[in-house]
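Methods, example record. To illustrate the input and output format used throughout this study, we show the complete record for Endoplasmic reticulum transmembrane protein. The sequence lines were provided to the predictor; the line carrying structure tokens was produced by it.
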Amino acid sequence: MHLPSYHLTFMLLASEMITFCLLVAPLPYTVRKKVFRFLSESPIVAKVAYALKISFIFVAILFADALQRMFRVTAESELAKSSQQGINDVRTETNLAARKFYSQRNTYLTGFTLFLSLVLTRTFYILLDLIHTQEQYAKLKKEVSSESAAQNGDTVKEVAELKKKLAAEESKSKDFETLKKQAAQQAAEFDRLATKYNEATGSVSNKRSD
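The corresponding predicted structure is encoded as:
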């Protein structure tokens, strides 16, 4: 009765292993980004994921049933070994060994399917967060580069303005030095003329007094 269910469980396990290999494959960043965006945003993938969640509930039920069967077959095998009739009856021993093997196989099959589903889900979300982090880092890097470029442009403008102001101040200082020299020359010339004037007026007054 459980044979088709375990066949489906094995197919589910095989698909999980293939999907896990595809997720951890060294794909280029652009390809990985497109694939994960499709898996996280596609409504078809969302419906498939919902169906898989329901199937994993049935797998969990099969795991509990297989675990219970394994414990029961193990107890029957131990009881048969402790009995003289179980040791002498080869057919019974072979039947118990086969039942024990199948119960352990079903337990490992369902258990590993559930475990791999958890690993696959966690790996998918870790890689999705990594892609989002890389996108944010790329955006932040662009913003920082644009801001630095703008700041460099502003710095260049400020330096140019300061150079213009410095040139204007230097021209003003040159003009001031020129005016200062001209004023000194004019003052010296005025002193010279005043001295001559004083000498001339002094000599005239002396002649009149004689």
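Annotations derived from this record:
The chain has one domain: 3-160.
The two ends are 161 Å apart (CA to CA).
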